[in-house]
Amino acid sequence: MIRNSALALAGLALLSACSGKGGDPSRQYGGDPALPEPSQYLIPPMSVPQAVGWKTGETPTVPAGMRIQLLAGGLMHPRIVYTLPNGDVLVVESNGPGSTPFRPKDYIQGKVKALAGAAAKGGNRITLLRYDASGAVQLRTVLVDHLHSPYGVAWVAGMLYVANTDAIVAFPFTPGQTSITAPGTTLTDLPAGPIDHHWTKSLVASPDGSKLYVGVGSNSNITENGMDAEQGRAAIYEVDRLTGAKRIYASGTRNPTNLAIQPGTGRLFAVVNERDEIGPDLVPDYLTSIREGAFYGWPYSYWGQHVDIRVHPQNPAMVAKAIKPDYGLSSHVAALGVTFSQGETLAPQFANGAFVGEHGSWDRDPLNGYQVIFVPFVDGHPQGAPTPIVTGFLAPDNKTVRGRPVGVTLDKTGALVIADDAGNAVWRVSGATGH
């Protein structure tokens, strides 16, 4: 088996070496990204830096006038960070439940992605961090353990809701508590196995707390496992918080990896990971407001009415309904985190917009992502060029990666907190006027 794996990876390297290079990612940011003609591959080109972790004293890089510090290290694949009303920060440590590859290509892709830390063991737990205004940690403890590939979390009215890969579970919880001993109760089941290709379930509460919104990814890249496997997938659900009754709120979102509520407007936004295997510059991942009843294209089309000819049967009626996302993030950045700014807590130029954690590409050369960016908003809509805020996850040699950003949140001081699953760390970025 080892010899066969080596041969497969060697063949993959040859295929990748013959593949075209990606273009300038800046051409794919904004409302009108450049979209080249699609390519077809037997096996898509893959380019993944090896995860090496952070050496003592190393940190990501931030702009002049900002400070970055390590809040917690030695974690088990931290994915999501969430700020409670009392200022405590929750860290969801998790990875997928594991499944048998359905195609040889799945096996090969899994081996390559593992080089960048994607296969690291998850903690299946939530850790609580309590720290002062300077970022000095006063308490680090496991809040709740023995979860089932948890991802999204939300606290509403005395209950902590955790989106496991197969269900939303509710725990009685008052901010200030440092452990949860009461058993959780299932609010509603979520689409899961046996394939569970996109296992993460993102979660956010509505402004009034009456609803929970849940992002559910597709069960394949582009329906390779059959349309039956996609029932209820690639969608954002609205869940009644009291009864657990749910409905599909919006569909055609291939993998809505994170959700956020825009301050002031109360509008739901998502970052979505688009499809792969049709070229280094297709298809741009995106940040968009989510309209009730809207269809965003997957699997039949992308960026509006650009038809994906790989899908059978085709569906022109659904293509005609597909709407364009608001803002392209460029191709294959794997946007996994989003949170809105709250005034000039980091710097005046970051007063109005959203921070996005880009986990980094695995099927693009040159590599793309591996940073946290700021997307400016104008009149409530994303507009203009993004600004890199936290970089340095990818080493200067472009062959090794020290960390990979995932979820992002603002703490009670307005500092930016970042989960780093390849570095098994949580970082905190504060502004020039902060501590």
The largest sheet is: 5 strands, antiparallel
Helix fraction?
under 10%
> How many strand units?
30
CATH topology: Neuraminidase
Provide the descriptors you would attach to this structure in a database record.
disordered N terminus, 5-stranded antiparallel sheet, Neuraminidase, mainly beta, 3 helices, 435 residues, 8% helix
Q: Describe it for me?
A:
By secondary structure, the protein is mostly beta strands. The protein has one domain: Neuraminidase. The strands form 8 sheets. It has a 5-stranded antiparallel sheet with strand order 1-21-18-17-16, with no helix packed on it. Strands 22, 23, 24, 25 and 26 form a 5-stranded antiparallel sheet that branches. Strand 6 and strand 7 form a beta hairpin. The N terminus is likely disordered.
Chain-wise SSE layout:
Elements: H1 2-17, E1 29-30, E2 50-51, E3 67-72, E4 78-83, E5 89-93, H2 104-114, E6 125-131, E7 137-144, E8 153-156, E9 159-163, E10 167-172, E11 185-189, E12 201-205, E13 211-216, E14 235-240, E15 246-251, E16 256-261, E17 268-272, E18 284-289, E19 301-302, E20 306-307, H3 316-321, E21 327-331, E22 335-340, E23 353-358, E24 371-378, E25 381-382, E26 387-390, E27 400-401, E28 405-410, E29 416-420, E30 425-430
Parallel strand pairs: 2-27
Antiparallel strand pairs: 1-21, 3-30, 4-5, 5-6, 6-7, 8-9, 9-10, 10-11, 12-13, 13-14, 14-15, 16-17, 17-18, 18-21, 19-20, 22-23, 23-24, 24-25, 24-26, 28-29, 29-30
